[in-house]
Specification:
alpha/beta, Rossmann fold, five-stranded parallel sheet, 18 helices
Length: 416
C-alpha cells in the first residue's frame, strides 16, 4: 500500500512539475511565433489557402484584404528567412491536421544548401507548431545534433534565462488579427534596379530544390493545387539565378508558376518597397490584389462573404484588423510613414499643404499613389482643426460615414 501511495505521490509531483514548467515556458518564450501563427494551429481546417515561404510573403500578401475583397479564407504561414526544408516541415505538420484547397509557395531560397537559418528566426517559424511526430521528424532532419534539436523540442531550455527581459506584453498579449502577415511602412527607392536575364539560372541540385520537389510531391499526392511564386525583390544575382530555375521545375511537374517579380507594371520600384527584399504598404496592396485576382479566377475557391456562419467570424476579425491599422496610423510619427497608412480607399483624406512637396522626392511619389486625397485650403483646414495649423502639412481622415478617424499635423516631417 505504501508503495502505491509513494508511486501516486511521485506521479502527482511529476505532473505538477510538468505543469509548472509548461506555464513558465509559455511566459518566458518570445511571443513572435505565438502571436503570428497560434490562430492557425488552433484550427487549420478553417483556411482554404495556405501561404508558405519567407518574409517576402508575409509582407506581400494580406489575408484580411483577401477576405474583404474576395471572400477567400487564407492564412499566411510564411516565416522570416524560412528555408525550403523548414517550409516543407511546416507544411507536413499542418497536413497532419487539415488539408487546404490551395498552397501558394514562395520559391525564394531554392539556391541554398543550408537546412536552417540562424536559431532566432528559426524559432519564430517553429515554436508555435504543436509538438507531434511530424515536428519531431522535421527537427531531427533540420538539425544535426541533439543539443540543437533539444531547444526546439523543449523551448524552456532556450528561454529559461529570459527573466530579466520580461515585459508586460509577455503576460498580457493578444494574438495578431492579421492571419500571419506583417506590414511595413518604410520607403526605399529601387527604381534603378534591374533583374538579370531569365535565362541565367542556377543548378537545381541544391538542398533547396530537393525540398521544393518534396513539397510538389506532397501536394500532388494529396490533390492539393500548388502554386509556385516569385515575389518581387531586389536581391543578389545568386538569389535571382535560383528563382530563374524554378519555372522549369514547375513546368516539368505541371505546376502553376506566378512570376510577380517580372510582371511588367505590377509594382513601382521607386515607391513600393520598404527595403531591398520587402514591399511596403503600397506594394502589399498591389500584390494582394494581384494574388486575389489569380486565386478567384483560376482556383475555384468559394466566396464565403455570403455564408453567414463564416462571414460573421471573419468580419469580426476584419473589424479588429481595421482598428489595429488605425492605431498604427495614429502611432506613425514621421510624415512619409504616415502617408502610407492612408493607402486605403475606405477613407477620404483631406490635406492642407503649405507648399507642394519636391516632385522628385519620396513624399511626392507617395502622395501620387493615393486616389483618396483631396487638397483643401488653409481656412478649411483651420475650421476642421478648430484652431491654428502649426505645420506644413495637415491631414484629416474620415470614414465612409464622414466621421473623423484621425487628424495629424506635420512640421519638418515630424508629427506635432
Amino acid at each position: 500500500m505504501d508503495r502505491v501511495k509513494k508511486l501516486a505521490a511521485s506521479l502527482c509531483f511529476a505532473a505538477l512539475l510538468c505543469a509548472v514548467l509548461a506555464l513558465a515556458a509559455s511566459v518566458l518564450e518570445r511571443k513572435n511565433s505565438v502571436k503570428n501563427y497560434a490562430r492557425f494551429w488552433e484550427d487549420p481546417k478553417g483556411y482554404d489557402v495556405w501561404f508558405l515561404g519567407t518574409s517576402h510573403v508575409y509582407y506581400g500578401i494580406q489575408p484580411m484584404d483577401l477576405w474583404e475583397q474576395y471572400g477567400i479564407r487564407s492564412y499566411n504561414l510564411a516565416a522570416s528567412s524560412s528555408t525550403l526544408p523548414q517550409t516543407y516541415w511546416t507544411l507536413v505538420c499542418a497536413l497532419e491536421q487539415a488539408q487546404p484547397e490551395v498552397v501558394v509557395l514562395d520559391a525564394f531560397k531554392v539556391h541554398m544548401n543550408e537546412k536552417h537559418h540562424d536559431d532566432r528566426v528559426s524559432h519564430v517559424g517553429l515554436d508555435s507548431i504543436p509538438l507531434s511526430a511530424a515536428k519531431l521528424k522535421g527537427i531531427c532532419d533540420m538539425f544535426d545534433t541533439w543539443e540543437e534539436r533539444f531547444e526546439y523540442i523543449c523551448k524552456f531550455s532556450v528561454y529559461h534565462s529570459r527573466w530579466e527581459e520580461l515585459e508586460k506584453q509577455d503576460f498580457n498579449y493578444q494574438l495578431s488579427p492579421m492571419k500571419g502577415s506583417q506590414l511595413k511602412d518604410k520607403l526605399a527607392d529601387f527604381s534603378g534596379f534591374q533583374y538579370i536575364a531569365k535565362e541565367d539560372m542556377s543548378p537545381t541540385d541544391t538542398v533547396g530544390f530537393c525540398y521544393l520537389e518534396k513539397i510538389i510531391e506532397e501536394c500532388q499526392k494529396r490533390g492539393i493545387k500548388l502554386v509556385l511564386a516569385a515575389f518581387p525583390f531586389c536581391g543578389s544575382e545568386e538569389e535571382q539565378r535560383g528563382i530563374n530555375a524554378v519555372p522549369g521545375v514547375a513546368k516539368a511537374h505541371g505546376v502553376d508558376f506566378l512570376d510577380m517579380a517580372h510582371e511588367e507594371g505590377l509594382l513601382d520600384y521607386s515607391v513600393d518597397f520598404g527595403d531591398r527584399n520587402h514591399v511596403n504598404l503600397f506594394g502589399s496592396k498591389k500584390l494582394t490584389r494581384y494574388m486575389g485576382d489569380y486565386l478567384s479566377q483560376h482556383c475555384g475557391l468559394k466566396d464565403y462573404r455570403d455564408t453567414p456562419e463564416v462571414a460573421e467570424e471573419w468580419n469580426a476579425d476584419f473589424a479588429i484588423f481595421l482598428q489595429e491599422k488605425i492605431k498604427w496610423m495614429k502611432a506613425a510619427k514621421s510624415l512619409k510613414r504616415y502617408v502610407q497608412w492612408l493607402s486605403d480607399d475606405r477613407y477620404a483624406c483631406y490635406l492642407y499643404q503649405e507648399k507642394a512637396p519636391d516632385p522628385k522626392g519620396g513624399l511626392a511619389r507617395e502622395l501620387a499613389q493615393l486616389n483618396n486625397i483631396h487638397l483643401i485650403s488653409l481656412e478649411e483646414a483651420k475650421a476642421r482643426m478648430g484652431g491654428e495649423i502649426r505645420g506644413g502639412y495637415a491631414f484629416f481622415v474620415e470614414d465612409a460615414k464622414g466621421e473623423m478617424v484621425d487628424k495629424a499635423v506635420f512640421r519638418k516631417g515630424k508629427r506635432q
